[in-house]
Amino acid sequence: MAPLMCSTYVALIFIVRSGSFAAILYVNSLNQFFLSFMVPVVIELGVEVSYPIPESVSTSILWQSAQLIGFILMLFMDNFRDENGTPHNNMFKGLIFQACMSGVCVLLCFVYNGPMKRSEAEKVENLAPKPPMTHRELSYGQQSAETLIITDVDGTEKV
Question: Is the pLDDT of residue 134 over 60?
Fold first, then answer.
């Protein structure tokens, strides 16, 4: 999805020059469509690589840091306004910067190969021997077709 999002940023550079409002809306809708699939994957990846930290904490930190970085980038892109351009104060250079930043992120996506700490911990946990379940654990909240018969020391049955 990252290369597709990058392609929408590159397309936006050329479409803005043409001045077609419908094309700008179409490219922006494609961008948001691809973004809607990327956000859960990126959040899940962040949770995977920061395993000892609880999922809610790492998700909140990732979300807030993304908002902060986006705010800083918008302030930075505002400096690219072209006061002498046509139209006045256009953001053409800002769009080029945005596409370049997206390209760098795509390259980083291709080379990243971090450890999946949470998945590895779950595999170790699933391989560990588990103690047998007690009667309370077996019957609590579970429907069973079998009847559990418990016998006393003297051999009498209890249900």
Answer: yes
The CA dihedral of 133, 135, 139, 145, to the nearest 10 degrees, is: 90
Domain identity same for 111 and 130: no
Dihedrals φ, ψ of 151, to 5°?
A: -110, 145
Q: What mean pLDDT do residues 91-118 have?
A: 90
Provide the phi-psi class of 103: left if phi over 0, else alpha when psi is between -120 and 50, else beta.
alpha
Q: Cα 127 vs. chain centroid, distance in angstroms? A: 28
Positive or negative, the CA dihedral 67, 73, 77, 79 is: positive
**Into how many domains does the chain fold?**
2
Nearest to 119 by CA among 39, 68, 50, 69: 50
**Confidence (pTM):** 0.69
Residues 14 and 74 in one domain: yes
Whole-number Å distance between alpha carbons of 153 and 12: 80
Per-residue pLDDT of 85-94, as tens digits, reads 778 888 889 9
